[in-house]
Amino acid sequence: MGLLGSLISIQAANGAPDWNKSLGNSINWLSMSGDGNVIFTGTFAFTNWGNFTVASFNKSGTMLWQDNDFTNFYEGVNWTGISRDGQYAAAGGWVATATHQGFLRAYATGTGARLLDDRPPGRVEGIALSTNGTWLVSASEDLRLYQLRFLRFPILVWNSKIVPNIHVPWWNWLIPIWKTCIFYTPTSTNAPSGDTFHTVAMSGDGHWIVAGGSAGKVRLFENQSNTLVLTELWQTNASTYYAQFVDMTPDGNWFAVAYLDGHVEMFNRASFASTDKPVWDYTVNTTGKKVWSVHVATNGTEVAAASLELGGSGGGICMIQNKAGSGGTYTPNLLWNFPTIKGPNPGLGMDDNNQYVVGADGYNSAGHFYLLNAVTGAQIWDYATSTMNWPIAISGDGHSIAGGGDSGIVYHWQN
């Protein structure tokens, strides 16, 4: 293995990050490309005005670029999203409360070129992109779908090979060079009366979109010819509670929803179309404590959930098996509970092979980052920080992990 490999292994075993970078203000959310080569985030300050930033790093800790054009914004970057191929990313939040106006900016991650600067109504609460970034969706007081466009146009430049004189026609003095302009353009909006959207997820091809929000409603949309078409609507019995978090498998066949009243629901898209119901409902805690987030395994066989209470004890992370039965039925089966040291936060992730689960805690307190064995729930390491931690992400191969929190520091671990 060599000395360097041994040192990296020791670092991972002790939970020490291999690098960290400070951005100043808090970090509310963070996104990572599927291969872990691009880490995208922005800064945030709860209920405060300030100057904020969006930044992109590679997995070696080099800042690729930074957008500091967020002067006198309210709260800053609340949410981020990135395409799985890492080429495109978006950040959203609030511009101002007086007009209740949000913002959504999209970027080419290689250059930092801004491809969109939109103003949804209200704070942007969720962002999702398709695998190659062709489709982008944002959740706010409305749901907005955007498509990536490529516009080619000629620019006339001087032909240096021609010495102009009266015997050469003027049109031979110039030659066209084709340029490509890339940008996102809105294609469809859904704004149900009296409801707001709090969370959104998208299939890898951008064809299926699930969004949840106020009054405990979950809506499944089909992207038909660039238009959001509502195909199914579900409202949980706890109608006054938010649908806090949704996650969807890349093929769009499965999605799970976490609610603020202590339960998780699992949906099969085909079954939802025929029954208008989830395939199962699982009570994570019986005291109505918040289930902050869910993450569905890429094959839909398990669902991880982070909750402020587990099994009558303190908060933690649990793994629920999506157990297949006879006649196409499915039931929830608790595989394990892992108690976190502090109350967990929405940061939760799993690699593509269902080997690792990552989580973050420190609800209103000093916190920790965690790496767990996805099969057994055993802790591999934890890393303590002096402030609350909110987001954490893991690459598809499980080799790169990144997190952030109120310290304003981006942490990275090589696994």
Molecular structure report:
By secondary structure, this protein is mainly beta. Helices cover 5% and strands 56% of the residues. The protein has helices spanning 2-14, 269-275, and strands spanning 19-22, 30-32, 39-42, 44-57, 63-82, 88-96, 101-108, 114-118, 126-129, 135-139, 143-158, 174-190, 197-202, 208-213, 217-224, 227-235, 243-248, 254-259, 263-268, 280-283, 291-296, 302-307, 316-324, 330-339, 344-350, 356-361, 368-373, 379-384, 389-394, 400-405, 409-414. A seven-stranded antiparallel beta sheet has the order 2-3-4-5-6-7-8, with no helix packed on it. Strand 9 and strand 10 (135-139) form a beta hairpin.
Largest beta-sheet characterization: 7 strands, antiparallel
Q: Which descriptor suits the 3D outline?
A: globular
Side by side, the strands of the main sheet go: 2-3-4-5-6-7-8
Which parts are unreliable, with pLDDT below 50 for 5 consecutive residues or more? 1-12
Strand segment count: 31
Integer-rounded radius of gyration: 23 Å
Strand share of the residues? over 45%
Given helix and strand content, the structural type is mainly beta
Tell me, rounded to a whole number, the average pLDDT: 91
CA(first)-CA(last) distance: 15 Å
The share of residues in helices is under 10%
Name the assembly state. Answer: single chain
Number of helices: 2
